[in-house]
Design brief:
The protein is an alpha/beta fold and about 425 residues long. The chain has two domains: about 160 residues, Lyase, Ornithine Decarboxylase, Chain A, domain 1, CATH 2.40.37; about 240 residues, Alpha-Beta Barrel (TIM Barrel), CATH 3.20.20. The strands form three sheets. Strands 4, 14, 15, 16, 17, 18, 19, 20 and 21 form a nine-stranded mixed sheet that branches. Helix 4 links the parallel strand 6 and strand 7. The chain is globular, with a radius of gyration of 23 Å. The site of ligand LLP has 23 residues, from helix 10 and helix 11. Its EC number is 4.1.1.20.
């Protein structure tokens, strides 16, 4: 459920007609709905209520906009961060350091130090090497880092190859076969309170069974570690729940996910953390774009050329991802089109042979389900600027990220003297 809908023939975000935003901010522009974010935050929380006191850490990578983080903070969420930059954003949004979890396979020394200095709540350690480095830094500072060991359960998440993280050949986590040995070593280090295990097998999961298989393995490991005398109090079950991008896609509901987790983790006696991203932010955003022109195709359908491109929304080019494409003021007529951006490569294609609302030059349209992994993956390829972002709240709205002009980007560049 989201708050983008036609009213009087015009698509609105909550109570704001999208043409108003296009008129005042220009296009392309991401538009987020606060009510949708809040609704998803609450649905996810309610779904986990049977588990008692859990920690919810919004995956900042899915949408790091400060206003979005502020909404999540007000909903009582902490943050799952994967870089110093995300860590600083979470703090800037008012999240308590104790509510921040630091994931990622390549945390640098500087990032580990930053996490320690800020006294974040948990480091998810992805290798023995990282664990040793963290312990050493913490011991030098005279503090104790709270940590879990991220394991790689060797489970196929059944999602796109580029967003699968839990197979043995993926770079993430410590293989289960090495987990006990690694845990024993790291648990003995001064500076580290290794208190549990973390897992995350991938994103946009449309089936619960790989998650369940991974969680079963985590449960067995927890029992194993306890038998070996370790004190295991925390388990982080990551994110990954999918969202519907197109008609007929039926991801498990948060309630079904919660019920599965409750069943599998029964009796574990640990404090659970979750790192949802897409399931909260995905349907809470659209990318609003204007048709530049419609061009006749060669031997296929016409090209609808929009002013958004792969640099603004990379998912179709990167993963072949589907985003519904809808007219902001649909006439009722339909067409079949190739929907493309202006960038000079064929990869800049949002959809091929897509049946969609009939559109003409100058008209507005949206790519749906663009609230997660949208603006955050933007680039300035082809010397296009960085796309603007807007948040709507009922009938009010605000620009929550300025468009960054190509000139601002080139201002950061220099031609050295010896080249003048
Ligand atoms: N926790 C960890 C450790 C992660 O790596 C991720 C996502 C999440 C949580 C959040 O997962 P979610 O609930 O959003 O599925 N750019 C790709 C998605 C990459 C996901 C990376 N990790 C896309 O556009 O589909």
């Amino acid at each position: 459920m989201d708050h983008f809908a036609l009213r009087g023939g015009v698509m609105h975000a909550e109570d704001v007609p999208l043409p108003v935003i296009a008129q005042e901010v220009g296009t392309p522009v991401y538009v987020y709905s606060r009510a949708t974010l809040e609704r998803h935050a609450r649905v996810f929380r309610d779904a986990l209520a049977p588990l008692g006191d859990v920690h919810l850490a919004f995956a900042v990578k899915s949408n790091p906009n400060l206003a979005v983080l502020k909404v999540m903070q007000r909903e009582g969420y902490g943050a799952d961060v994967v870089s110093g930059g995300e860590l600083m954003r979470a703090l800037a949004a008012g999240m308590a350091p104790a509510d921040i979890v630091f994931s990622g396979v390549g945390k640098t020394r500087a990032e580990l130090l930053l996490g320690l200095e800020k006294r974040i709540g948990q480091f998810n350690i992805e290798s023995r090497e990282e664990g040793r480095e963290l312990a050493e830094l913490a011991a030098e500072m005279g503090v104790e880092a709270q940590a879990t060991l991220r394991i790689n359960p060797d489970v196929d998440a059944g999602t796109h190859e580029k967003i699968s993280t839990g197979r043995a050949e993926n770079k993430f986590g410590i293989p289960l076969v090495h987990a006990r040995e690694a845990f024993a070593e790291l648990a003995g280090l001064e500076g580290l309170n290794l208190r549990g295990v973390a897992v995350h097998i991938g994103s946009q999961l449309l089936d619960l069974s790989p998650l369940e298989a991974a969680f079963e393995k985590v449960g067995a490991l927890v029992a194993n570690l306890r038998e070996a005398g370790h004190n295991v109090t925390h388990v982080d079950l990551g994110g990954g729940l999918g969202v519907p991008y197109k008609a007929g896609e039926n991801p498990p509901s948060p309630a079904e996910y919660g019920a599965m987790v409750a069943r599998v983790t029964k009796g574990w006696g640990v404090h659970l953390t979750f790192e949802p991203g897409r399931v909260i932010a995905g349907n809470a955003g659209v990318l609003l774009t204007r048709v530049v022109r419609v061009k006749r195709g060669g031997n296929g359908p016409p090209f609808v050329i929009v002013d958004a491109a792969m640099n603004d929304l990379a998912r179709p080019a990167l993963y072949g991802a589907w985003h519904d494409f809808e007219a902001v003021e649909p006439s009722g007529e339909r067409m079949t089109a190739n929907i493309v951006g202006p960038i000079c490569e064929t990869g800049d294609t949002f959809a091929r042979d897509r049946e969609c609302d009939a559109l003409q030059s100058g008209e507005l349209a949206v790519f749906r389900t663009a609230g997660a992994y949208g603006a955050t993956m933007a680039s300035s390829y082809n010397s296009r600027g960085f796309v603007a972002e807007v948040m709507v709240d009922g009938s009010q709205w605000a620009v929550v990220a300025d468009r960054i002009a190509p000139e601002t980007i080139s201002d950061a560049e220099r031609v050295p003297e010896w080249l003048e």
